[in-house]
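Reading a protein record of the kind used here takes little practice once its layout is understood. The fold follows as a row of integers, each naming the local backbone shape at the matching residue. With these conventions in mind, the following record can be read line by line:

_____
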Amino acid sequence: MKRPAAAMDFCVDGLPTVVDGKMAPVHYGGGKIYFRKPSSFRVYKRSTDKVESTAVADFSSKATATKSWMHAFKLINDDPRPVD
């Protein structure tokens, strides 16, 4: 896949990577994360959920982008329901 030279890759602790805010849906821990333009993630805590949670995304720097991305994973990890 080709991408612009200025694209921002970041990955934390082996979690999936986001490239400059453009990504395919990510399946993680029984949930799903989608990128919603202009600057948020739609987070389904479990793949069967019909209601989403929103994680605000800030892609102004690598540090803020990583923090936003980790918040999306935290929403899934903090859900008390068992993973199917």
